[in-house]
Design goal:
single chain; about 300 residues; mainly alpha; Growth Hormone, Chain: A; 14 helices; about 80% helix
Length: about 300
């Protein structure tokens, strides 16, 4: 098994982190672009927000499929294949002729994005020893938030200079570099044992999880918080793009640097769980979340930024 602080460990972990940055950059690329998409396609704000919603929805649904698929054909195959196809779809999205085409392509992006998160943790669980696994998972989760910031920054800064289509073209180039690095750095699976792909087993496993009240409660709390969190960021882009703020796409992209405070918060909550309790940590987080939301209701830009932090 791969042990921590060995060259193989750092190659594998860095490869998965780069892949994570790539996929989450693609997921959130449209968030700073929502006002620009609204104006470009002459649609309302709710329709513009669908460019993020359809990708997120297809991602969530397809996670259920790519996990069993990686059990059958291998983690590395799923990761590299979906990343390659994601590069191509991101490039094609830049040439969407109407908003319906854009939504279809964003849906396909979400499907392909699901490949890496579905297979990455399984890969680490099989290939890493227990100590290496803890370190690798922590770095991988941090890469998730870094990916969200990266995609938003790229799209916001590029769109301000060359338009929203250029954001997808630049990101496609970024994706290609990430794909090459993952391909070169991710070691072949040594402990993988294929299992037949059986849809009835996949369905029965899903039903079994849905019957577990603790899993249901955890999914409901986490899902509801994430639903509010993502949609607040989508909504605030329209508020800040309009008067009296009038922020352009590049400033909207920079606004998403507030997302990085989530990385610090995750580290703090981990220590809180160890020293106190899981329910106490969740309750504390929800209260802080509510207080931050109240700050965003003020007309002061500094307080809005503080609230999102």
């Amino acid at each position: 098994m791969i042990q921590s602080n060995t060259p193989k460990f750092w190659h594998a972990t860095l490869a998965l982190c780069i892949g994570s940055v790539m996929v989450f950059s693609n997921l959130y690329i449209t968030q700073p672009l929502l006002p620009a998409l609204r104006d470009a396609f002459d649609i309302d704000s709710l329709e513009a927000a669908l460019s993020l919603s359809v990708a997120t929805l297809s991602l969530g649904v397809c996670l259920l499929f790519f996990g069993p698929l990686s059990d059958a054909i291998g983690r590395r195959v799923v990761i590299l294949t979906t990343l390659l196809l994601l590069c191509l779809i991101t490039f094609v999205t830049a040439f969407a002729t109407d908003y319906t085409d854009l939504l279809i392509l964003r849906c396909i992006q979400g499907i392909l994005i699901a490949g890496l998160p579905a297979a990455a943790l399984a890969y680490m669980g099989e290939e890493f020893d227990s100590q290496a696994l803890l370190l690798a998972v922590g770095l991988y989760i941090g890469a998730n938030s870094l990916g969200g910031v990266t995609g938003r920054l790229i799209s916001g800064l590029v769109a301000a200079e060359w338009g929203w289509r250029s954001s997808f073209l630049i990101l496609a180039g970024f994706d290609l570099v990430c794909l090459f690095l993952v391909y070169r750095m991710l070691p072949l699976s040594r402990r993988f044992e294929p299992r037949p792909l059986r849809f009835h087993r996949m369905l029965s496993d899903l039903i079994l999880h849905l019957r577990n009240p603790m899993i249901l409660a955890a999914c409901f709390i986490g899902g509801l918080n994430f639903f509010i969190f993502v949609n607040q960021y989508s909504y605030i882009t329209f508020v800040l793009a309009d008067e009296p703020y009038g922020l352009s796409s590049d400033w909207l992209g920079l606004f998403f640097l507030t997302y990085l405070t989530g990385t610090l918060g995750a580290s703090f909550s981990g220590r809180l769980v160890v020293n106190r309790s899981k329910t106490g940590a969740m309750g504390t987080g929800i209260v802080i979340f509510m207080l931050g939301t109240l700050l965003t209701l003020t007309p002061n830009l500094v307080l809005i930024i503080a609230g999102f932090c």
